[in-house]
């Protein structure tokens, strides 16, 4: 699908996200097959009064290094930079928007995309000021970065304020996990094959585990992270979106509202926490010192700029339950953490055990089938089956049937931000969150936040470089289960 001519206005154009992800993704799209329309432009915005030359020099230094070397060429980079201008605007000062207006094109038919890579406290004021400056046209779109609020009330407020300026069909609430190739492949697996659908239910599935583990810490984002924590940073958005894709009913088609209606039903069917289940089914952890891949790491509280008494969680694990005919009784275990033993993101769907062994082997030696959807570092699927070992006798052991997307398709994959930015430019909303989805996700996590706010409620500690606190193993252990790495045979 062709991209209409556009002015892409990047608020926060000098920030960390712009440098590491957005500018590299825009470069990749500009040089891709089809590319950008010849006169498409990128207008970067921030308070700092950079000249164009200074801003481009900053991109040379801070953004270029995040582009794969084999994709960089002097000509392509220079052609890309020719599209870019920089305008100094204080988002909170309506008077400064005149300079932005002057830099933008006013001919009809040019799409305007406003990407707000700024603190969310600025979202409402930016939208109001854009409107007041006459910069919002029916072809305009706004992209909102996460976190969209810090609780239900603030999320509702942002939705309401942004909604006064942009219609819902013009608002793109980004969750970059939905742009990951493997997540879209999960949709393909579920709704492009007949094989799994009959099994994708409580009768055959014992439990689902969704893990996003990071070896990295909070880097230079301590200021943000300290007020956010793993629940707001990862669980409320990325993990819940993955849960929705696994658990939703087949949508009638892949149009935005058909998909988003089904995700919303899942969020609304999540069982609400009670004081009792909050204690049993939620683990809040913070890392203390340890080693990640042999390198010493200080405790979170001793990281640069950290609050030495911080109660911010760097790890969260929950047992979620979905009260529907399809999923009743199937626990969904979600966990994420910083400074963990490995960097990986995966979804593990574990099937039930066979009812009876016809072989001499005891039933306890049969590992239940499981489907592992790997999101990163590599992307693929593996289905673990019991198979006969070669040779005499009849001895079965687990074996994997695998699909490595990179090997199979031998095509370079698109980074999540590339995919999502392309969808914004093409006006495709399917992979973006609707306001009611966002609010339903906040509604579900809100009791956890309230519980944690109580004074005597402290995180439990885990060593940096481990798989999280022992309480997370106990959480899943209460259902007689183990996290995947705990169940793997020792090598
Ligand atoms: N960094 C990341 O990995 C991720 C970030 N996000 C989200 O993206 C957003 C941006 O994050 P990040 O890039 O890390 O933040 P940074 O602090 O690095 O950048 C914020 C940018 O906002 C601009 N800004 C701040 N106040 C104003 C203002 N009043 N008027 C105009 N511009 C302003 C700053 O420019 P100047 O100082 O020149 O005004 C700066 O370029 C946040 O909401 C964050 O949560 C989401 C996912 C990942
Ligand atoms: O949104 C965020 O995601 C990253 C993890 O993303 P990934 O694509 O690298 O898995 C996380 O590090 C960051 O804290 C969070 O804001």
From TrEMBL:
Residues 9-185 form the Glucose-6-phosphate dehydrogenase NAD-binding domain. Pathway: Carbohydrate degradation; pentose phosphate pathway; D-ribulose 5-phosphate from D-glucose 6-phosphate (oxidative stage): step 1/3. GO terms for biological process: glucose metabolic process; pentose-phosphate shunt, oxidative branch. Keywords: Carbohydrate metabolism, Glucose metabolism, NADP, Oxidoreductase. NADP(+) binds at residues 47, 146. Pfam families: G6PD_C, G6PD_N. Substrate binds at residues 176, 180, 214, 233, 338. It catalyses: D-glucose 6-phosphate + NADP(+) = 6-phospho-D-glucono-1,5-lactone + NADPH + H(+). Residues 187-484 form the Glucose-6-phosphate dehydrogenase C-terminal domain. The active site is at residue 238. The keyword RNA-binding does not apply. Its EC number is 1.1.1.49. GO terms for molecular function: glucose-6-phosphate dehydrogenase activity; NADP binding. It is an enzyme of class 1 (oxidoreductase). Coiled coil: none annotated. GO terms for cellular component: cytosol. Belongs to the glucose-6-phosphate dehydrogenase family. Catalyzes the oxidation of glucose 6-phosphate to 6-phosphogluconolactone. This is Glucose-6-phosphate 1-dehydrogenase. The lineage of its organism: Bacteria, Pseudomonadati, Pseudomonadota, Betaproteobacteria, Burkholderiales.
């Amino acid at each position: 699908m062709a991209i209409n001519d556009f002015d892409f206005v990047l608020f926060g154009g000098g920030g960390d996200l712009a440098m590491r992800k957005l500018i590299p993704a825009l470069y990749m799209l500009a040089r891709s097959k089809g590319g950008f329309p010849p006169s498409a432009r990128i207008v970067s915005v921030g308070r700092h009064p950079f000249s164009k030359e200074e801003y481009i020099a900053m991109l040379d230094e801070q953004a270029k290094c995040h582009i794969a070397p084999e994709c960089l060429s002097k000509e392509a980079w220079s052609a890309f930079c020719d599209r870019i201008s920089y305008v100094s605007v204080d988002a909170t000062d309506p008077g400064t928007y005149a300079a932005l207006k002057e830099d933008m094109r006013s001919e009809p038919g040019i799409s305007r995309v406003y990407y707000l890579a700024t603190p969310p406290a600025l979202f409402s004021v930016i939208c109001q000021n854009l409107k007041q400056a006459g910069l919002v046209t029916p072809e305009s779109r706004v992209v909102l970065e996460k976190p969209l609020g810090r609780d239900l009330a603030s999320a509702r407020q942002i939705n309401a304020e942004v909604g006064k300026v942009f219609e819902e069909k013009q608002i793109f609430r980004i969750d970059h996990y939905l742009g990951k190739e493997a997540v879209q492949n999960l949709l393909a697996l579920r709704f492009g094959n007949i094989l799994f659908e009959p099994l994708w239910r409580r009768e055959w599935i014992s439990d689902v585990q969704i893990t996003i583990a990071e070896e990295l810490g909070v880097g230079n984002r301590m200021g943000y992270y300290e007020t956010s924590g793993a629940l707001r940073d990862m669980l409320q958005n990325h993990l819940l979106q993955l849960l929705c894709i696994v658990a939703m009913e087949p949508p009638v088609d892949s149009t935005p509202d058909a998909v988003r209606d089904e995700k919303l039903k899942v969020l609304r069917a999540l069982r609400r926490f009670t004081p009792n289940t909050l204690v049993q089914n939620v683990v809040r952890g913070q890392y203390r010192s340890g080693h990640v891949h042999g390198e010493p790491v200080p405790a979170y509280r001793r990281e640069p700029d950290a609050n030495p008494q911080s109660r911010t969680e760097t790890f969260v694990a929950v047992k979620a339950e979905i009260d529907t005919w399809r999923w009743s009784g199937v626990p969904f275990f979600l966990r994420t953490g910083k400074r963990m033993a490995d960097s990986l993101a995966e979804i593990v769907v574990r099937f039930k055990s066979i009812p009876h062994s016809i072989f001499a082997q005891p039933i306890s030696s049969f590992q239940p089938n499981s489907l592992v959807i790997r999101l990163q570092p590599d992307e693929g699927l593996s289905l673990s089956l019991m198979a006969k070992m070669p040779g005499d006798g009849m001895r079965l052991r687990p074996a994997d049937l695998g699909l490595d997307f990179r090997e199979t398709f031998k095509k370079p994959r698109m980074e999540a931000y590339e995919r999502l930015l392309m969808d914004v430019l093409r006006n495709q909303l399917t992979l973006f969150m609707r306001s009611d989805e966002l609010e339903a996700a906040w509604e579900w996590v809100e009791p956890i936040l309230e519980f944690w706010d109580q004074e005597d409620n402290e995180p439990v500690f885990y060593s940096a470089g481990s798989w999280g606190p022992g309480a997370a193993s106990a959480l899943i252990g209460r259902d007689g289960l183990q996290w995947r790495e705990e169940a793997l045979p020792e090598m």
